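Z., the sequence and structure:
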Amino acid sequence: MAITSPFEVLQALDVSFKANACGFPVNTSVTDDWVGVGFQINHVPFLARMDDVSEILLPPSTIRVPGVKFWVKGLANIRGALMPVLDMKAFLYGEATVIGKNSRVLIVNKKGLIAGLLVEEVYGVRRFKPDEHKDEKDPDMESLQQYLAGVFVDHVHQWNVFSIDKLVETEQFSCVVCVG
């Protein structure tokens, strides 16, 4: 059978391609990456799950609240809502954060607590494969173990995974009013 028209040429090509076609490769083992926000407190790199941080802001102006713990910077007006801003370096290490050009506030909303966590610097989004997570404990972080959930290691840092869930569950963090 001789091909006489361009349409017949296309039909012949279609038949030939379908006869010789192989399917696309299928990856049946798709795993989601662990995604977090990298930040620094007291020159130590940390990660928080991306789902735990709703926003990252420049440090806002705050109004001091009398009678609260020293690590409570004060209240800030964030888009019309009053929100406590909490100094994480002061909370974890007992020394106030010196606010600089790289300082940021991580907005968290966990278990009814909406707050801004002041950190020295934010490194941005970091992605890791779930099998890169290690449950090992960094011996230098002994005093912070109650807030940590393992580590990830990349070519630059050993990232301590900071658990916002563990943080908001502690009585020390939820009790911001000075007693006595």
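The beta strands are 34-41, 44-49, 53-57, 72-78, 81-87, 104-110, 113-119, 121-128, 148-153, 158-162. The chain has one domain: 34-174.

Let me know what you think.
H.
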